[in-house]
Specification:
Length: about 280
Amino acid sequence: MSATTGSDQSPLHRLRQRPRDSVVVYATLAIGAALWLFPLISTFRQSVQYGGLHNYLTVLTTDYNGVNLVRAFGNSLLIAALTVTLTCGVAALAAYAFAKLDFPGRETLYHAALLLLAVPAVAIMVPVYWITGNLGLFNSPVGVALPEVVLTLPFAVLLLRNYADGIPNELIEAARVDGAGHGRIFRHVFLPLCRPALVNLAALCVVWSVQDFLFPSMLLNDAGQTTAAQAVQTIKGAFAPTPLQTSQYFAALMLLAVPAIVIVVVGLRFITQGITAGGVKE
């Protein structure tokens, strides 16, 4: 019997072997891409209808209702960086404990953490607002990053723990035999082996953080701290209904969409791997 690889038996591979099904699949993908691109193309066309490409330079160098788009991009990236650092750090420690340490109640704690996946953002709005106020973190990137981390951590622990389960325990035991403690094993053995899953998680965290509108709108009242997601609504009233300013508003919308699009395109491979990481065990 000839050996076949797992990828040769994938549904996509089998569809490619049947021309009729392949045509249907690619036609469906083309229609979906066209539906997704139509609003983007329409927005770009509107943005250059009056004033041309100079509209983009104008909105980048002008403050609207106290909001500067370049600063808004920087605010979003700063919050995303904090979210990624905290989420990956805490989730990696939790994954190591749940996957490689044996302690009473381990599985109970793990499943309790997974139950938090069912908690929606709106359910913690009041506690988040109260805690943020008591900590004095209003109008602070940290104040926005912390609730984002809280909501992301259950998924992050699930992702990294599933991946860590595939790391051979023999490597951990060999390090222990050589006299390494848990701290050294975590830094020099566990983290390097989990690097693919950590990159996947980081890409997902950046996308989710940049697109978050709820917590920045609730916790950031200073126009100078406005994020890119907030700016779409904040700058709307600053444009008059003239043809030129309407085109400039569409130019602003295009620029605000750029970070999320770039992140998704650049990190698409990592995001796809992240969703399936740990899904197959040898």
